[in-house]
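Troubleshooting log. The previous structure file for this entry was overwritten by mistake, so regenerating from the original sequence record. Sequence copied from the archived sheet and checked twice against the printout by T.R.
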Amino acid sequence: MRYAIVGTGARAQMWARELSRHGELVALADTNPARVAVLQKSYPAPGYDAADVPAMLAKERIDLLVVCTVDATHDEYIVAGLEAGCDVVTEKPMTTDADKCRRILDAQRRTGKRVTVGFNYRFHPVHQQVRELLPRIGEIGSVHFEWVLDVRHGADYFRRWHRDKANSGGLLVHKSTHHFDLVNWWLGASPETVTAYGRLFFYGDEAGKRHGYARDYERAHGSPAAADDPFALQLSENDGLRELYLEAEAHDGYHRDQNVFGAGVSIEDDMAVLVRYNTGATMSYHLTAYSPWEGYRIAFNGSRGRIELDMVESDHVAPRVAGQVKGHSAALHGVEAAREQGGVSLRLREFWQPPQDVPVAPFEREGHGGADARMIDALLTDGPSALDGARSLLTGLAANESMATERSVRARDLLDLSEWER
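Regenerated output below.
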C-alpha cells in the first residue's frame, strides 16, 4: 500500500508510524514546508504544497490518503482523494458543517471509494468491554456522560487554531465527536433531537479579567508577561515543538502559543447537551474544559440495571517543568508525568443483586490506551465509515445550532442522512 499524508502537524507522526506497518509512506503535503521537513527527517518521502495535492495523488500513485489538516479543510482533501481513486482516512471530526458533510458523502457514493474516520476511542479495550457488557442491563433508557479537560489539555484548544469556531466547529464538533460516536456505537442509535447550552466561561479576554488570570501578551514566546504564566506554552523548551511550530512561523505566521486569555476566542468552554436518539434513549452530556483533573464519568441506565464507567486520565495538574518531556506530543497534551495518570473503574449494578466491580480489560498508557495502533489495523478493513462520521457530527452540529438559536433542533433538519443510508 502506498500512502500519503496531508497535514504534517503533531498528529501526523502517529499516522506515519502506525501505517508504516502496513505500507510505504510515499508523499507528504502541508501548507507549511518547514513542518513537512520535520516529518521528512524520519520519513524521507517527497514533499508537496497542500495546494498541489491532486497532482501529488496522480504522480505518486497513492492508494490511501490520510487527512490531518485543520478541521474546516478536511472536505477539500477528502474529496480530492476520492476523485483521484484513493481510499481516504481522515482525522476526526470528518468535517465541520452540514454542506461539507454532504459533499463528502456525495463524493464517496459517486466514486465508490472508502472514507474512514479516525475514531480511536472505539478501539480502547475498556470501551469495547463496555459494549460487550451493555446487554446485561437490557434496553438502554438513558446515558449520562460527563467529560472534563484539565487546565493543561483543555487550555491547549484555546492557544491554537481550534479557538476559532470557523476552523474547528468548537469543542462539541472537534472534541466531543469522539464521545458522540462512542454513544452511537454503544447504543446502535442515531441522534434525533438536540438541545444545548454553552458559553465561554473561563478562557478568553473577558473571563480572564473577571477571574484574575489575564496577562498582557498575545503569544508566549519572547513575552516577559508569559514567563511565569502556568497557562503559557513555551515552545522553545521542547525540541519537537520548536521545530514543528516556532521555526515554521516564517512560512505562514501561525502562532501555536497564543494567550488563552487573549482576544479572538470564539468557541465555548462549558457546554451542556441533551440528546434524544431514534431508539428512544436520551443522553445528558456535559463538557468542561477547565478542570483540575481530566477524564470522564459515564452511566448507562437500562431495563435490568445500570453500568458505571469512570476513566480518570490525570488526577491532578502539576506545573510544567522545562525539558521534562522528550516527545512533543506529550507536551502538547500535558501528560508530562506518569505519576499523574489516574485509574479506571467499571461497575455493574443489576436489579436485586449487589454491585459488581468488573475487572477492566488491560490497556496501555501510551497511544490512547493502545487504541491508536488497534485503530490503524482495523481502519484497513472495518473502520468507522463516512456515515459514522456524519452521525457523530450531527450531534455536535445540532448542539451548535441549538446554542445559537436557543431552541431544540431536529438533527435531520440540518442533515438528513436517509439519502445515503439507503
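Confidence is low (pLDDT under 50) at residues 321-340. Archived copy saved in two places this time.
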